[in-house]
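>> received
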Amino acid sequence: PPPPPPPPAPPAAAEAAPAGPLAAAKAAVASVAAPPPPPPPEPEDRWAGPQIVIDPYATGVATSNRPTFGVPATLEQGECWPQMASVLPAGCATVPLPAEFDWQGTTPPRHAMEDTVIYEAHVRGLTQHESSGVGEAARGKFAGVVAKLPYLKELGITALELLPVNEFNEVERYDLVDPQDNTPSAPVRLNFWGYSTLSFMAPMARYASEAHMALYEFKEMVRECHRNGIEVILDVVFNHTGEGNEMGPTVSFRGLDERAYYVMAPAGEHYNYSGCGNTFNCNHPVTREFIRDCLRFWAVECRVDGFRFDLASILTRASERWGEASAFGEGGRFGGDGQCADTGEVGVAPGHPLDCPPLIEAISRDPALAHTKLFAEPWDAGGLYQVGSFPFGYRWSEWNGKFRDDVRRFLLQPAGGGQAGDFASRICGSPDIYQQSGRNATASVNFVTCHDGFGVADLTAFNERRNMANGENNNDGEEHNLGWNCGQEGATQDPEVHKLRARQRRNLIVALLLARGVPMLTMGDEYAHSKQGNNNTYCWDSELNWLRWDEVQADSPRGEDARSLVRFVAGMVAFRKRKDCLRGTNFAGNDGIEWHGINAGEPNWADDSEVLAFRMPDQGGDVYACFNSGGYAIWAGLPQLPSEWRWVMAADTAAESPCDVLCEPTMEGTPMANIGGALLSEEGKVRVSAHSCVVLEAVRPHHANAGANEAYV
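>> returned
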């Protein structure tokens, strides 16, 4: 191909930038002209001549034609995702940066892992709804997050985990729900979640007041989070990029060195372990160092506290470079250097899982990242499932999908299959998964919901997904959700169904916050936000994904129900923070947990068991919890306490608010003898209603943690 024209001279500021990847990133180069490669040795190597691509080290992508989220530029017709072109500048450019950022003396909170309570949220979804009370200029942006920090503090959140904030093109698959409706207000589908990164060092321009201010305003958000004692965790998507498969557009990496950045077959096809068209070549030396530079930039320059790695198992797969070394022998275990541990043979097929992936090793041992929290989503779309076996586990915590499934199964599904035992393991911190490898309970990130799938509202209202509006014939999204609609599918006017659903939502929250490990709440679950049965809302910039602040207002039809659940969640988080036994790093079985059933000291581990109770010892007062997943109320016998101690009700998911959570000092004056569903007896038993749970705390009368109005068992 002919050589490209020389790029325009950069401004003096860029010329003066010091050398090195991170220093180069600070120059904020938005785009560069891709140099021509040598003549293609193979017909399948694609090269379309000189073109403009995004510099992977750019810290800003400032385009004049994309000021508004979700509004595509005027586009010419193209063969493949023409909207992708709207994210590219018209030519080479640099973006002037604001003055040196002032952190105003703030420092990262550095919460211990066992003290961490995560809140998974979306920057735009958090405040985009007009009822958020955030000014229009800040709504749906980094500044909007800052406005809601008091709310997160009230919930007791210690870490804000944000869905992708790297530059992505939300209109890459823009389409009208109704092709005949071309009005400005016509509903559209687009990439709302952001799992399609274009620039890994650039904050999303549409999350800032102006594109060139994105990095500055992102830092402002981090600074204010730290000022409020909240850490910032970024959801990073290094498993694939927004360039699609071999037929996709050239936006950045493809135009620089496609085979270095992507795992490719010899004929030029892309391996698709991500389910999104391509697989980032994470263990190639070039790509590996790029990823590490990105993480260092966010951790050092932007003071981010940690990272959640989307489809992290892809990061353990071999690069193409090893596949070219020699043939791959089935069943071989290959280390990070590509040498088979079984045969000594060097060489491994592209995409094969490595025992010692160079990227994971580099991240785990990088001193610049030593202070960060690392969370792996330990599976991928290619079938690799590494819950409990993610490499270098001493440094990583994992999204524990088994916690989600086993808790749902015991609380929401008919009894059977040894569910009580699995549920007990999750409460203990999942020792069956993590103990053998020498890890502790904080290796498990516990969650009952996340952005991907049903929230607690729909998990208790729908047995089947309702995803037709996504345009994929209801074939997308998880089919097996382990939920229960409580007797009626979807919306209902039946007050008994409403009560049962409210109870089950609280049961899920209690299990999450009593279990050893690191709990993660999902944005909106605290007030039972519903997505109307759609469990894959990646494509909706609408009220399906926006937090509905109006639903917790007094004049809302469900205001009292929503507010009471917010209060319940905050109360249970506060209870967890107050009780050391719930936040231990040891597995609970090693700290003296006792198991009980309907009768004290007699747990029922049978397949059809519907009742499980436990007592955790705590120097400040033991904790007792009883879960009844059956359809009938029971009287559960309580373990005995020393004569000077009494059991006090802390929570009862069957009780009406405000008596559902009684562990806050603000509840002084509440007639706690009227506990609603939790009737107390003098015979050392507690009533546990159908499909409910109770939580008790041991106190000494007139002791510091015993109020004047407690009801004793």
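>> DSSP finds 16 helices and 22 strands in the chain.
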